[in-house]
Amino acid sequence: MTDVYSLPPDLPVPEDDGAADHLVGLELPDLTLPSSQGDVNVRDVDVIYIYPRSGRPGVSLLPGWDETPGARGCTPQSCAFRDAHGELQAFGVRVAGLSAQTLDDQLEFAERNAMPFPVIADPERRLGAALRLPTFEIEGLTLYKRLTLVAEDARVVKVFYPVFPPDANAGDVLRWLEERTSRSSAPDRAPSSLRP
User: Fold this and answer.
1) Is residue 40 part of a domain?
2) Per the domain annotation, does 2 fall within a domain?
3) Other Cβ atoms within 10 Å of 137 Cβ, number
4) pTM above 0.70, yes or no
5) How many domains, the chain?
């Protein structure tokens, strides 16, 4: 059986196919979806990490999963966001995970991994339809490609895509937030005559 908490060596690296290039600047839709913590409107979330599907201990992965670029690593990615949750909260951001899995899957996953934020179920891929999110097909399933959206006032300001390795994504988001905060708080060094 596969250890869903670790990443095997030599996973194929996903390439940027341009499928997320249109997302920066888009407004998040007024869309409420079920989650491990009740209904969540995606407009109320600042960091949404979107992943294909998490595995369960003792359940075999889909055939070809490890060979599909960007597929493996949903549990390590989620656990990294869980472990970084306090630091993310210090920036005032609200985090959620989202996949096309059922609510039952998300409830089991969130409980088993003690997720402190909502894990959203979007089996009809309604967010994907609203934002034209990239997907891939495997074993008759249409799943989201892994990406992370950062929003301010419900508008996408940053997209992480492709995400690799997935367990480093939470750290990448934290670094981006730190840099953005330090840029916005840096004193304006322009002479007063040049300021607007």
Assistant:
1) yes
2) no
3) 9
4) yes
5) 1
Distance CA 32, CA 112 (A): 24
Residue with structure tokens 């003792």? Answer: 58
Q: Is 100 exposed, middle or buried (0-12, 13-18, 19+ CB in 10 A)?
A: buried
**Residue carrying the six token digits 């599907």:** 53
Looking up residue 116, the CATH number of its domain turns out to be 3.40.30.10
Is residue 6 situated within a structural domain?
A: no
The predicted-structure confidence for 36-74, as pLDDT tens digits, reads as follows: 999 999 999 999 999 999 988 888 999 999 999 999 999
Which SS3 state, helix, strand or coil, does residue 12 take? coil
Burial class (CB in 10 A: 0-12, 13-18, 19+), 171: middle
Question: Looking at the domain assignment, is residue 144 inside a domain?
Answer: yes
Strands 155-160 and 147-152: antiparallel
What are residue 50's DSSP bridge partners?
98, 147
User: 168: which 2 tokens?
Assistant: 């480093």
Which residues constitute the domain of residue 89? Answer: 32-180
